[in-house]
Amino acid sequence: MDVIAEIVKNLLVIIIMSSFLEIILPDGNIKPFVRFAIGLFVLVAVLSPSLSYLYSDKNLQISVWDERVSDDLSKKVEAGGQKIRQEIEGQQKQKIKQKLEGQISAVTVLIPGVDDVHTQAFMGDDGSLQKLQVTVKPGVNQAVEQVSPVNALSDSSELKNDREKADIQKRLVQILNNLYGLKAENIEINFEGG
């Protein structure tokens, strides 16, 4: 008798809830899903007390769900997972760094007077660009050298070379600031040869 009383009580609660949902929900595509869910609740409300009455002498609990993993094993698994995650992140950061260095080198080579570039990027822990070291090999401007007169007494070629380097450095800092938001103090530019 207790089983029937429990089933009736559960069904009454479900009927009241379903009536309330029918009133609230607008006509549309959602109502069939709500009716399906209510049907599942009715099945559970009827079967649960019935099964507990019929199989009262049996233990229907699944003991695997209650089994706990030891803290030592749990810590080992967590440490292994952290190690794998760090290795994956390290590889991704290294690839990003290499791509960024290649991109900066490609942009720098486009500056007039630059023949070759080697770029080294320094990344923060969050993957942001912190500092940049650029080694520039200036190109020889052959058209200007052929047209320019050579004066053996003055040191104008060295002054011209210094002006070209200053111009390259100014353009490079401006481009890197515009593209990557780096400030001039975070950009180290070195010239080799030339």
Descriptive labels:
alpha+beta, Alpha-Beta Plaits, 2 domains, three-stranded mixed sheet, 3 strands
Kindly describe this structure.
The chain is elongated and about 110 Å long. By secondary structure, it is an alpha+beta fold. The chain has two domains: 2-63; 98-191, Alpha-Beta Plaits. The protein has six helices and three strands. Helix 1 packs antiparallel against helix 2 (31-54). A three-stranded mixed beta sheet has the order 1-2-3, with helices on one face. Residues 142-148 have low confidence and may be disordered. The chain has helices at 2-24, 31-54, 63-66, 71-109, 142-147, 156-180, and strands spanning 114-123, 129-138, 187-191. Strand 1 (114-123) and strand 2 (129-138) form a beta hairpin. Helices cover 62% and strands 13% of the residues.
Question: Mean of residue pLDDT?
Answer: 80
Question: Order of strands in the sheet with the most strands?
Answer: 1-2-3
Sheet having the most strands: 3 strands, mixed
Give the count of structural domains. Answer: 2
Shape: elongated
Give the low-pLDDT segments: 142-148
CATH C-level label of the largest domain: Alpha Beta
Radius of gyration: 38 Å
Helical stretch tally? 6
Number of strands: 3
Estimate the strand proportion.
Answer: 5-15%
CATH topology of the largest domain: Alpha-Beta Plaits
Rounded to the nearest angstrom, the distance between the terminal CA atoms is: 102 Å
**CATH architecture field of the largest domain:** 2-Layer Sandwich
